[in-house]
Amino acid sequence: MTDAPRAQKRSRPVQVADQIKRWVVERDLRKGDKLPNEAAMIAQFGVSKGTVREAMRILEAQGLIVTKTGPGGGSSVGEVSKDRAMSLLGNYFYFKDLSLSDIYQIRKVLEPELVATLAGKLDDETLDELREMAHRHPEPARTPEEEKQQHITSLAFHARIADAADNELLDFVISFMARILADLTVYRRLYAAPNRALWERGRRHQIDLVEALARGDGQSARDIMRSHMQEAETMMNAQEMKITREFMAE
Amino acid sequence: MTDAPRAQKRSRPVQVADQIKRWVVERDLRKGDKLPNEAAMIAQFGVSKGTVREAMRILEAQGLIVTKTGPGGGSSVGEVSKDRAMSLLGNYFYFKDLSLSDIYQIRKVLEPELVATLAGKLDDETLDELREMAHRHPEPARTPEEEKQQHITSLAFHARIADAADNELLDFVISFMARILADLTVYRRLYAAPNRALWERGRRHQIDLVEALARGDGQSARDIMRSHMQEAETMMNAQEMKITREFMAE
DNA sequence: TAAGATTTGTTCGTATGTATC
DNA sequence: GGATACATACGAACAAATCTT
What we know:
Number of strands of chain A: 4
CATH superfamily of the largest domain in chain A: GntR ligand-binding domain-like
Distance between the termini of chain A: 29 Å
Oligomer: homodimer
Mean pLDDT of chain A: 84
Number of helices of chain A: 10
Number of domains of chain A: 2
């Protein structure tokens, strides 16, 4: 049991929620498995309807159960989705004021590592998706709106690669960083000459990376991603950005 | 607004919880700031007491608010603790069956990166704590119980270093991995000769690492951590381990 | 210490909404 | 459509915690 030896006073709904958690773990229940209905829990725990409902809300908020009305309805175990997990974690960092350099310090080492292990292991469908994204914007953006769109496509490119990893933790961390970056609000001064050469190199990186992945060349993939990350960081630092302070919604 | 354009039917408590979240974000409320009390929310949202309470439980479960009874009590904004964030994220991985190699793939690149940036930046108090942990177990374990204790001390050593990072995201990821590893259940066969040489090298690594950090030698720190991670992985792979399948408690 | 005020915590009864058969 | 089984929501009352005087 990881359960802390807690001396704290815990409200009844929280106690009930904890008991239900233990109940689920003990029986090793899985995704669709059903929990007892309200009436049964009222009897089981000797508490009122309201208390049971509050307990269910707690579990629901954590993504652990889903509830349906009607006959055959009730609560059942629900796998925590990646999106919800990212939102919950996002709430933690809401108070932390992450900087771009914080994020890039990690991206710079994780993303090259990721592509190195993925080389030669991607199926054709994934590779085609990546090719499409890499080629989607053949010209530099002319308007802030286009710029934003390209930015989002680029982050989706990275998230798509992470999804293909069989390391769920690596996938999550990289996807989470992509999401934070996507949620950034860009305050930028529009420079007269938005370095076309640098932009072009970024695009080439993506294209070359996909082909390195396709032919199973892990070392090249790693090297390409390294310089890509390096240049991406440079570009972003050149802009004035600020992380939006808001809670993430599921 | 990150808020998704959700068509779903959301129950009233969830709607109320969302509105309160928005309310908090709009006013940029911080850690101790108080929310309206139950009665006010009942009036504000035109819902019943039970509904408001369920909404509060949702926010509480996410670590966003804390509630106290009595005069001057009520709900207030509560910074999400690292522990709670780790627990919530742990629930996501509960369903994922992470392997040791998944975790070490990331540790191997992140921890060397961490110590490299930390060299020369730790205060004396932190360094002394690390020295104490590195020297705490001068002899190899003789019993499974001692072995477990040494394992936990070692993970605490890494978590302590992560805490000192000014990169909150890096801190969190490393601490989270340490916690997962600490939650592992060890099923081991006790080998006749538990490689004393390897154990001794691990201990030396920790001791040397602290001194490299103390004298500000980032390159050495990185190298030491690299081989330390490499050997730690080897040791763990030699053991039979299995991740305990249970929800983490706060 | 004690009493009173304030605010959340819990219960019960009842009514409504919703999905299935 | 109607019956059934279930969650959803409301309102009034009382209990418990905690602060102030």
